[in-house]
Amino acid sequence: MIKKLDTLIIRAFVGPFFATFLIALFVLVMQFFWLYIDDLVGKGLDIFTIFKLIGYVAAFNVPMALPLALLLSSIMTFGNLGESFELVAIKSAGIPLVRFMRPLLLVTIGISGIAFLFSNNVIPVVNLKLNALKYDIIVTKPAFDIKEGTFYDKIDGFVIKIGKKEKDDSTIRNVVIYEKAYNLQDRMLVAESGIMRTTPDKRFLEFNLRNGWRYEENGPRNSLGTDFIRLGFKEYKKVMDLSSFKQSKTEDSLFKYDAKMLSVRQLTISIDSLEKGFKTFYERARRETAAYLTFARFGDSNWAKVKVPPPVKAKNFDALIADSIREQVDERAISQISMVSTNITQISNDYVAKRQILRKHWIEWNRKFTLSAGCIVLFMIGAPLGSIIRKGGLGMPLVFAIIFFVVFYILNTMGEKFAKEGVTSIGVGMWLSTMVLVPIGLFLTTKAMSDSQLFNKEAYFRFFKKVRKLIKRSKEEDTKEKTAAL
Question: What is the pTM of this model?
């Protein structure tokens, strides 16, 4: 049964949580657009594509926005309660801190469960769609836009220069068009004026030119017998294909083999298959080197039964080989060693690549849980921190939230990088932030339960005042001792 105290705390938490979640999501989405601004600007994207991209990016950043929202909203909630002396009233009634943290802890556990389900079931699909859409946008050519006095070469096979464009943006003057002919010389069109327009379906660009010349040179390459053709015209129509400017639709299946596109169940199956595949490397190494190491077939259990002749005393190996075949033996040995080295290097490279793929799968498998655990960890820091600082609003809580979230983000990034490069194990790397921040959360909870003055500047002022008095007293005693000695 939910008591009035639980209802009070949950109501005080819901508003700041949704507000901070939307703010955090907005900041993360804007970070993505700032990162890819050069690939998005000037592509002529329609409004539907833009909103679809925003939706995919927002969904992709939900697991990262939730921990930040929980951290900031928990600091704000308990800070507001402390600032209005509601925490003092609750504690004076004999209710411990852990008791009135309990309803929000249960809510946080529920949110972390939702975050896990979202990361496991929604994020792989969003990753797939986002990567395909991002690829289509990046490879799309910039929107068609010919400016005055500049050479425009974005249309395949053509270079266009327009001297002047009238206000209607269709009437053009002093037109020069170079057309790629894959011959001795490119074709060239020169016209005094004309009309430039695109067809209604945006597939073709039409030039209706007036009063100009068309130049062309025909003939075989590396030959002096060529024909130069000059054609004058009063009106001339030139049509260019604009299909390369349309945004293509890449199939989602192109990106489906990335570990980021898989759920926990799919990752588990893939990891099992990859680990079983490592057994083939030992057999492959034995099979590909045995053909060149002919002596290896004698290394069996019957080798001990062979009567070995007494060793010949020689200063070095060359002394055992006749001069007539020494060069052949050396060349054959070098050739076989080279082949064995090449095969072993190739097998080693394949093994390292497979290991890297396996590490990526394990990293993504752990990521499904670490971000959900991060929600609980940051709440464990935010709730006692808010009750200690006893400041509401967006001032002091925002400062502390940014500090701890930056620490959380840096530890996550460093741990993932260490795990990818094999500096640490996958578990240590991916759970590094949790292992560091959980003791901090427990420490803050202990301090909050004992009404510690951890962030009270007056407490530090009094402490340093006592230290200064002790130092001053010590100096006075030293001075007295020196005076007495004299």
Answer: 0.64
